[in-house]
Amino acid sequence: MSMEATYADFSVSPARLANADVRHEDGRFAGSHLALGAGGSVTMEFEVEDPEDIPQATLTVTALVSKLGPEPGYAPVDVLLQGEALAEGLTVPGGGDLPQDNVFAVPGHLLKAGTNTLEIRSSAKARSMFWLYRITLDPVAQRGRSERVRTAEAARDSVFTYRTERRSAHASPSRSWQAAPRLLFHIDRDEHSLPAQLSWKGDDGTETAISFQSNMSDFHGVHRAADGTAYEYRGRLTGRWPYSEGMPNAPVSGSHHLHRFRTEEGWGGDWHRSHELRLLVDDGGPAPAERVTWRDQRGNSGVAVLHTLSNEVEATDVEASGEFEEAGEIAENLIEDSRDKWLAGDDVALLDFTLARPAAITSYTLTSANDFAERDPRDWTLLGSHDGDVWTPLDVRIGERFTDRFETREFFLRPRAGVPAFRHYRLDITRNSGGTETQLTGVRFIEAPSGKGFTGYYQRYNEGPIGYRGTPVPSVPAALPAPRLASDLDAAVESLTETAQTLAALAARLRGN
Predict the structure, then answer these.
(1) Each residue of 213-222: pLDDT tens digit?
(2) Model-level pTM?
(3) Exposed, middle or buried, 122 (CB in 10 Å: 0-12/13-18/19+)?
């Protein structure tokens, strides 16, 4: 490669640099940019290996001019490479809030092998400050490469903590801000982009929405408490570091914790595996977030609504005391994903289910069929068995009713300690709702909830929204540290040795007798 990714990022101090050395005169770091006064300058030196491979380069100077009171500012600059002007008296728009990208074509003949020098000089006639945010330089064939590298490096430190403050909405400007709990968050789809906006809703009804400075140094937003009181909300960065397993440097309060999801994106009529999503929002309150919405600095956005996953256990086989085989209304339909029903020609029935694996179920669902409510089960007993021969009663229902066709009702077993994991389950229907036949459309068996999943959408910049969903990443038990493992093995060997010696002594004594 004839030229490495080249940039100077002045949104942090010291500046982030790649293939660059920087110095400045009459300038100072101002929180998210380098501020140059009249006559100030920035000099960036960078290396080029082989300029013959670069017929033209693209230089981007991201900058803004400060206001002059209520009026737009004035701070023209000269841009020079090897002392030759690329622009003279350039007037960057002033008075706005967003920095402007100023793009220049750099003729290849101005580049040289070895060290090259770029200068940006603020005019001595400037009446306001020239705010310089970043400089990037790329061969024209690789335009945007340095910016992508810069944003990826900036996004590497993706765990953030902020000192926060609130004050009542519509309060006078003189009303003092009150300290609020610190904010800790981490959101990462492995796309190497920093968040621009973030909002979340707690499961107690609290809601918060914030927007960040481009360098993540500050945020401003709104917060609504559970009682409906609205506040202005702001924060200043106090800590930032890369994600690591368990995030040992990031204490999390109360019921908040990091979520790691396996995700899928829905497009083209099917679901497709996507990057892992890591999600944590801890605002110091007692309620965990149940909905998180974000937009990153590339313009991508997403929503994740968290919910408890039911852990359905697949039934692989079912046998019934009776079924209407001629019409296809058989027991097998009960475990299929369809609206086909099972019908038995009696007002009582037995259904024996075999699960794919033993499971200690905590609930089960029954789905009524398409017609004739008098065929619905009303009284039944659910039983479990290890071998299909000896049955243990688990749940008894009397006088149950379905109020609609294809209605799914969930029935929870009474919590009790030491519930066995049965492979076989029997539904013993002892009375229906008055008909001479009995029917159902579906039966499902559910274990204890398996954690939090999410559903939502994702939208890449300049594209339409697509489906987005996730399930928890299985936790992996931590490996026993090697020193501890070694000491445990040593202790076990010592114990076995002592036992062997004791047994040998006892055997010798017995032989002597």
Answers:
(1) 888 989 999 9
(2) 0.64
(3) buried
